[in-house]
Amino acid sequence: MILSRFGGHPKRGENASRSGHVETEAKTISPEFKAKAVQLVRTSGKTVAEIARDLDLTPSALGTWVKQANIGAGRGAPGALTTEERKELARLRKENKVLKEEREILKYAAAFFAKEKR
Q: What pLDDT, on the 0 to 100 scale, is given for residue 6?
């Protein structure tokens, strides 16, 4: 990125959004890396923030991974959903949405054909 002489603001199209914020690419992180990072938190004696800094992560992301791993291991809060339960819930919600849409279409079709018979 080239900074201008008088202000240092990036020009349009130089990794800047319309609001002026510099855009960053989202990281894709493997489940294996997440598991190793969680294991490091559990065994190293360091804080989540220290390990997050060492791994170039945000403390909130690493904390979320640790919390979700605890839930998956049965050490979470009562009623907390495991990763598999979250996936199933998302799938069921999507399926429910499709079924509701199909039901609405059938209601309109039934009303249409009922009028046509008269």
A: 46
C-alpha–C-alpha distance, residues 18 and 64, integer Å: 31
Q: How many CB atoms lie within 10 A of CB 32?
A: 8
In 31-80, which ranges are continuous DSSP H helix? 31-44, 48-54, 59-72
Give residue 73's Cα distance to chain centre: 21
Structure tokens at 45: 């004696």
Percentage of the residues of the chain whose pLDDT score is greater than 90? 54
Domain ranges for the chain: 81-118
Torsional sign, CA 69, 47, 44, 33: positive
Mean pLDDT of 82-93: 93
- Copy the structure tokens of residue 30: 């493997």
The label of the residue with tokens 């979700």 reads: 68
Residue that wins the pLDDT comparison between 42 and 19: 42
CA distance 104 to 33: 44
Angle at 54 between CA 48 and CA 58, to 5 degrees: 55
